[in-house]
Amino acid sequence: MRADMRGDMRLDAVGKRYGIRRPWIVRGFSAGLPAGRLVRVTGPNGSGKSTLLRVVAGVSRPSAGQVTARPHCGYVPERFPGGLPFSGREYLVHLARVHGLPGAAGRVRVEEWLERLGAASYADQPVRSMSKGMCQKMALIQALLPSPGLLVLDEAWTGLDSAARGALDAAVRERVAAGGTVLFVDHDPARLAGLEDERWDFGSPGQVTVLAGPAPVAVSPVVARVERVTIRLEAADAAEALERVRAIDGVRVISVDVEGDGR
Amino acid sequence: MTALLRYQAAILLRSHRWIFPLIAYGLLIAVGAAGSSSLAETLDWSGAMLVPVTAFLTRAMLTAEPDAARACVAAAAGGPARAQLATLIIPLGGGALLGLAGVIFDVLTAEAAAPGPGSGGLLAKLTGAARHPGIVAGGLLIALVCLLVGSAAGALCNPPLLRHPAAAMLSTLAAIILGLAADVSPASAAISHASAQATGPLSAHWPGTGALLGAACVLAVTWGISIAAATRRDNWSQGAS
Q: Is B157 among the domain residues?
């Protein structure tokens, strides 16, 4: 809802590193995240996928560049260790409130999602005593229950039983169909295969490339043809040139890589 | 913000991490009440003891929530800054409750510090205190200064700024000692200013305006640093550094 008013969500020359002397994990990455887009993030272990997802989700602030027009976000971390002094149900009701769903509205959503993911029978168990899969379901439900405009899933399928994996696949499709943006990491290439619009791939350290997914990228009907062109600018005022390119009707800047000392 | 505060308060209550600071404060003010000669002096002591108690209550809160849960809440609340603010407000509120309880305890147990007619009864003690509201008000202000200094010490020496448990605990202790003993600390300034002014057992102890302003500034700066760190640092990649 908020995304519609403020335009599409965008990442502009986003960079992240954990300290001035630390290497850049992501650098100079620009991409649009319009409504209804499904993005798979790929790359080997330790390449920075989780970090990028956290920046997109707004859990950590980029060290350079900015993220604009982020809709309400549901985030599922890679691991959800249950160190909380609540039962599953209590935790979810608290999180529903934080998501802006107080009282009965929140409770109804919690019950709906507990049912959908097959977790209702042990929802009153303390989170501390839950298995990995049960905890993972709690993390999933808190992210899904507000029907967020942006859903960020960091290997959210691991540890789930096959029924819950199917339910999550369905939930992702629903979100995208309802105009939500979904970003996910999963090491199973068959996961949501053929559905993603784009793939963000971590190649060399710090560099993320946007690749077209198998699904056709939604374009305005005026633009009949989609072409991807790489332009290399060797100039100090590259940012200005980039702005002019961006202003051209029908042109979308997909990714920007900054080489050399771009600070 | 209310939802965040409720969530954090529930974590603190349900994890029972408030019990140790509560018992520690109870013992400390009991010792203080036994060893002081006037109500004003007892209140100085109770206020001072809020520095360590609030610092450790803040530490208890800052380490209560698993990192992954923090990340989920940060996304849900629209940013880690608000989540961190709620995490700092709750132990400050808890410390304020303890401080208030401490002042009430001191007034009720005060031994003829403010002698009223027919001293000894509970009512007499209350009316005795009521006849010297300055003593109680001064005590409350000193407690406020110490509360803010304690919260600042806790915020500065614990996650997300200092993640290693041993380093965090030792520096929290060091910050408490500095907060109570160093001349530059608003807490020690408040207490020494207060007792320097005192002319007799019935004179009120007031912290200086400088101490109040100083404590507010120290709190704002340390909370700011803690919140900034919460928005920038990543939980997993930092490890124990």
A: yes
